[in-house]
Amino acid sequence: MKLNISEINKIIACPGCRAPMPLIESQDAVCSLCQSSYPWLAHTWNLIPSSWKESSDLWPAWEQLQANGVVSYRKDPQNNLNVGKRQVSIDFSNFCRFDGLVLDVGCGPQAWPSHFASGAEGTRFVGVDPLVGGSEADYTQFCALGEYLPFRDGVFDHVVFATSLDHFVDPLPVLLEARRVCGENGEIGLWVGEKSANTPKPANSPEWYSQLKKPEGAEDVFHFKRLSAADSDRLIDRAGLRIVAREVHEVDQYRSNYFYRLQVTSAT
Questions:
Q1: DSSP codes, 104-149
Q2: CA-CA distance, 166 to 127, in Å (whole number)?
Q3: Residue 205, domain extent
Q4: What is the pLDDT of residues 46-69, one digit of tens each?
Q5: Number of domains composing the chain
Q6: Which of 3, 52, 89, 105 qualifies as a cystine partner to 7, CB 3.0-4.6 A?
Q7: In a domain, 8, yes or no
Q8: Is residue 267 scored above 60 in pLDDT?
């Protein structure tokens, strides 16, 4: 079930200055404090601040990676989006134990992600992704960036990253934003897919994949840098988070999925 406009306005904030910013459905939004404007798209608002590219020289490369992702979603959604009854997505959903209000950062353009498979009665989902807004979804979505979450502090019971954290220019500021909007006693759910550097390349790749461009500075056509379990542990510690539960789901000798449930450390 989607949030109504009254419920949205209880959690929304200007992504630039973080001031409360009441929204009116189907109308452009303007922050009364910093005067930043955010256009209404076909189905939601574009809440990406106009200054977003000023924070890094890597944004042009990120845009190429995003464009590559769009191609993969259209050409092979079953293997590149959390759609359908994917057992690993169901496992992650059960692991997260969703309840209350859940934010999915990097939710993807699909109408209903597979990892929303389970949750306590009354669980509501909100998603942010720069690719949403052009088509209807079955839950509340905003066109937004993980680095600039358009929400007030502490308004979510869960924040989740379902294989999305390694798609950001720098995942640390994104985790810090997740910590900011996660409420007291809330949890951050993290799903990281680890792939060994010596994983054999497929004998044949589809034509659409062969045509993708790898931008300078990226590890592959979809990631700046794939996260290993060790990378993830260090990142979690730097973000002032502690691991309260972790599971490892081995795919094969080269690939494993790591699930984490995280909370804010008492020292931060």
A1: EET--SSSS-GGGS---TT-EEEEE-TT-SSS--SSEEEB--GGG-
A2: 17
A3: 54-264
A4: 999 988 888 788 899 999 999 999
A5: 1
A6: 3
A7: no
A8: no
